[in-house]
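Question (not urgent): is this output format expected?
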Amino acid sequence: MASFLEDLDELTLRCRDEKARLYIREAVASYRVGAFRSAIVGAWIAVCFDLIEKLRELALAGDKEAEIHVRDLETTRRTGDLSRALKFERELLNLAKDKFELLSPLEFVDLERLQADRNRCAHPSLTADEQAYSPSAELARLHIHSAVTHLLQHPPVQGKYALDRLRAEIDSDYFPTNPLDAKIAFLSGPLRRPRESLVRNLVVLLLKALLKEKPDFKRRARLVAALHATQLLQPEQFARAVVGVVSAIFRSVPDQDIHSQVDLLKTMPGIWVYLDMDVQKRVQNYVYELPSGQIEDISALLRLEFLRNQARQRLRRVTRKEINDSLFFDLHEELAAWMIEQYLSSNSFDDANEWARQLAIYTSDFTPDQIRSIIRGAGRNSQVVGSFQLESLLNNIKTKNKISAEEFDRLREESGL
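Got this back:
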């Protein structure tokens, strides 16, 4: 049976900082020979070195609070002030949790236990007379595991500073709009090995920006790319974050802005499964009653399985005016078939001319079978045959070479055109 215990050598390799890795390696070596007190002391020293290096990295990155503490450390080292050094060590975990959010409250508790056990191991005055403190192997292994998984494997940006850094990256005009490129951009940052809270906070930030802030086209593309990249980098944490917040954020969007939800689902359809049923129903009702100003979304909605039925029902009620007022369509085959059907069933020359102008815009998107349907059907409707735009439409179709010139001419002849 496979062991559920993590391999200690693999834990050692996860450490980012070389000094911390050295001390954890010594702690592991002590553990393996039964020197459990030494293992716990080594794990605590690794934690101290790692936190100090994280403060230095944050200071180099421009964190003013970190700069203050790094200067204090340098002063302590230069003056050899032992009491000041001990005070810093005692307050180190609180500093990491409260000032820099490098530790969650639960992680802080685990490492605080490590600090207390280290004191028992290293200071005989803290133990009872004639009784040496003798930690168990399980306790030593737990502390090594906690040191690495809670702290040593993570970069020094896991709290508000990390979120602010990610926000600044995404807001840059030079952040990628392609999810794969965005993933590469995130690889060297805090999302490489993030805490659960960081992923959740980033997902909330991105969803709120997409659904409630009405970003312009370029910013929206960056936000969507960042959301995709987060999912690619940390799929399990992303899923847990989304399922916990997305329905609540969707509910907070007012009716007049529901189209922002549709825009998000068009680009990230996988989010649908995380929505509660009442939220799904609200979006489906919106699509069924899709406003005229959003009718150009109909093709994209027909491609979404979970909104296709509502989109089809809305398509049956689309008017020619709504088509004329729309800027442009990404032509889905069902929309193309519907437009062709409307053209071929025109009840007047005016209708036929208007629909012919619309079809001429999309002739490059028609399939060969749809081209054949237009030519054959046109000959059966006198309003189409007598319309001014028919010849222009047929010439437009012929130039697209969707069918051979010989077949095109034969179909025209057979249809009496």
